[in-house]
Specification:
The chain is built from eight helices and no strands.
Length: 166
């Protein structure tokens, strides 16, 4: 029951970030994190914290965002999840990490996180075309900011093709 409540609150928080309205997300995500910490749902809490880190970055609180995303990376996700679930969660955390570092203008770190997300998704065979397109867009932006236009254009072309398919 508490895991469901936590996931519901996280979904509401992600909806706010998806609508580019991070101020709507913070309260839902913080409540989800409280439930997870109280109930020992570390992996779910890590996902909520990664999402909250992206919210902080969107709001311009880069220092808090980086502190939180680095904290998330130290959580032992294996306590509650099997290997496949853990890898899936790591891919989601990596996508938020890429966003945080991109907004922080730390483009090599953003690139690394986005590439990690893509690699895990391919490895798992769980490709959400819309989600992975968002990740590839972020990767393209990170590459472009590093002056790597040819690589960035390749990523943007992949994104364009995926959206054509959708």
């Amino acid at each position: 029951h508490t895991a469901f409540s936590s996931q519901f609150l996280q979904a509401a928080g992600r909806a706010g970030t998806g609508l580019d309205k991070p101020y709507l997300s913070q309260a839902y995500l913080e409540e989800s994190i409280k439930i997870c910490e109280k109930e020992g749902l570390w992996a779910y809490g890590a996902n909520a914290k990664a999402t909250l880190a992206a919210v902080f970055a969107q709001r311009g609180d880069i220092k808090e965002a980086i502190n939180l995303i680095e904290n998330v990376k130290s959580v032992d996700l294996g306590k509650n999840f099997d290997h496949k679930s853990k890898r899936f969660l790591l891919s989601r955390i990596s996508s938020y990490e890429g966003k945080v570092y991109g907004l922080a203008k730390k483009y090599p770190e953003s690139e690394r996180a986005y590439r990690n997300c893509i690699e895990i998704s391919i490895e798992m065979g769980q490709i959400d075309p819309f989600g992975i397109s968002q990740v590839r867009k972020g990767l393209g932006e990170a590459l472009l900011e590093q002056g790597r236009k040819k690589e960035a254009l390749k990523e943007f072309e992949i994104v364009r093709e995926e959206f054509r398919k959708l």
